[in-house]
Amino acid sequence: MTIGRRVRAIDWDRRTSGGSRYVSDVALPGILIARVLRSPHPHARILAIDVEAARRLSGVVAVLTALDLPDLLYKHEGGRLSDRRPLARDVVRFVGEEVAVVAAETAAQADAAIAAIRVRYRPLPAVTTVAAALAHGAPRLHDRPSGSNVALHIERSYGDLAGACRAAVTTVSGRYRFGRQAHACMEPNGTLARWDSETGRLELWTSTQSPYFVREEVARLLGLALEQVILREVSVGGGFGAKSKVTDHEVLAAALAIRTGRPVRLVLSREEEFATTKCRHDFDVELQTGVDAEGRLTHREARILVDNGAYNHSGASVTGAGVGAMASLYRTRGAYVEATLVDTNKHPGGQFRGYGGPQVTFAIESQMDELAARLGVDPIDLRITNANRPGDTTHAGWHVRSGQLVECLETVRDAIGWREKRVRGGSGRGVGVAVAMHVSGARTYENANRADAAVDVRADGRVRVRFGGADAGTGQTTLMAQVVAEELGVHLARIDVVTMDSELTPFDLGAWSSRGTVMSAAAVGAAARAAAGRLRDAAADKLGVPAGVVSLREGHAVAGDARIPIEDARHPGVGDRGRRPRQPRHGGRQHLAGLRLCRSRGRGRGGPEHRSGPRPPSGRRPRLRGGDQPRGRREPDRGWRRHGAGGRAR
Question: In the chain, what percentage of residues exceed pLDDT 90?
Fold first, then answer.
């Protein structure tokens, strides 16, 4: 048994010995080092960029600005929400926005090239607070449908709000501010890119939670087919949401690799991590909560201002998730939530663990304690009285199926000696209790709630699990190995897990929205059960017994006193009822299954096809401007580039 007991992480020895290979550890011949030139202004128009001096420096191989890339926006959440280019074109909107990128033989040469680039700016009025951005006549960052700096406005009324308000005997009101936070991952964002012009393939080693989203964005922005962009597996030193989508540097490394014909590594500094990468959104919440004479919540009214920063990224869905959490935590008869997402000239907010939930939960839970004090009741008792219970459907439509909030609160109360400590009062040290509610999965993207996995039983008896997501240090590879070990009856030491590699793994959108454990365990479990069924069938044929009496344990197929190693059961020709099995794509017997299917071969419904071997040279050519440069050859100098509406400078 591996499920339900503590096990050592399958990569423990590698991780604790320094053997894990991160982006900065990948060694390829001829790697160039990339650096990014960033805006010093919160808001300014780019008049011109002079890159001539930078190009002439020793060791500098390429310098790119926005005019070298297709004039396309990151997809992020798509449609009218897309608003950011990989490199600023015409206007910069926050301090730290990417303006140019260089590749050189050494880090010192790349730094010198960045210092040599000259940019002429015309500073523009900046709005660095939500209040300033909403003020009459405030300068607009984007051409939004709202005609203002409002990127999104949501207004929702739930239940019998008027009746709920009348039933309230006590209300509390307050304003709660939840400021920005940085993810502070141990490993900064980084990408190594290699372009092969002969095969038309772009390989990426990148620190990400979601390999698929990186592939999709890079392919689209550079005019490549999705299958031309290959993600390779690396260790990931933390994510917390920061790396759950593209992190706005991968395409820069890729474009430089294509331009130079050499591998390019771009790793952000710790200063860049704090100052320029996506942070948790700042929420300003005005909240009123009512309670009736029996201590049951009647209503909740909230008005939320969300600081979007300079670009949307995931601001719209974070705001929507916050609205959902506000309307869902605890039972109420009615609720009203108004949320406004506002552009400001600060670096953009983005995905962060909890995704809009912690900000509103802070307000809700602060107010629950205030209500308890007003009513003179125990704060835990008030929470138990109003707790969501299994079978509930919240105002936002969230279905609670397995929640045990009441049991959790009762257990916590006893375990920490809550009542005894409350009687003693203020001793200077204490304990606190707060409740949170979060969903697993999402409906933001197509196939957002789908995951596929493959399990291979190999000729040497080892088992390989293939999963397209990434383990950002959370132990996901170990939990998948535990599931497979349980289903196939093998020891964890015999299981290898391959993640991220888009040539070897089936479809998955990655680790985000608290979907990693739920999705990967379900997909891997389905694949492992399919593999176990075939192994039992094959062993039954070989042992001459019914398949129903065969069990898998300790690496063997067992029927009574007879047993054979599972690698013997998987021998070609055994278990296929006389039919010769087709050759697998990646070696061994492949068992592919997903949440929506259980097939031994092929691809998941709606997923990409997975090829082994190089793509033929018929793939799309990347859409870099100024011509594709032969490998190892420097691009021509162009001097000043004029940025403005219409045309491009030569």
Answer: 78
